[in-house]
Specification:
Largest sheet: 2 strands, antiparallel
CATH architecture of the largest domain: Orthogonal Bundle
Low-confidence stretches: none
Shape: elongated
Distance between the termini: 65 Å
Number of strands: 2
Order of helices and strands: EEHHHHHH
Number of helices: 6
Radius of gyration: 21 Å
Strand content: under 5%
């Protein structure tokens, strides 16, 4: 089992797709890491040698990537800063609504939660 940046990456997947399980690494960055570490992108994680796993770890540090806890802290601090200064995006975060200008009349159930019907109570 390969453990990189504190995460056990999936063994059955190819290396770039496995690296995407680390918070802060997408597919493009994972391909850059493979190039820098000189690891074949078609290899499965289970087929990597210990030297190759070490070279992948070194490539992540050489690219100076913020991954896992450091990246999560950075994102949460950015959200907190926006909430504190009261900008539009901060207000949307505070209210639990979509931030990037998406439609909210019919969609955005993930952010808004379960529908609550108002005004259709029982007549007395």
């Amino acid at each position: 089992m390969a453990r990189i940046a504190g995460i056990d990456i999936p063994r059955e997947k190819k290396v770039p797709f496995s690296l995407c399980y680390i918070h802060g690494i997408g597919l493009t960055t994972a391909n850059q890491i493979c190039d820098k570490a000189k690891v074949d992108k078609n290899l499965r994680v289970k087929d990597l040698s210990n030297d190759q796993v070490t070279s992948v770890r070194d490539a992540i540090t050489a690219l100076e990537l913020k991954v896992e806890g450091e990246q999560r802290t950075l994102v949460s601090m950015n959200i907190k800063r926006k909430r504190d200064i009261g900008c539009y995006q901060g207000l949307r975060h505070r209210r639990g609504l979509p931030v990037n200008g998406q439609r909210t009349k019919t969609n955005s159930r993930t952010r808004k939660g379960k529908r609550r019907t108002i005004g259709l109570g029982k007549k007395v």
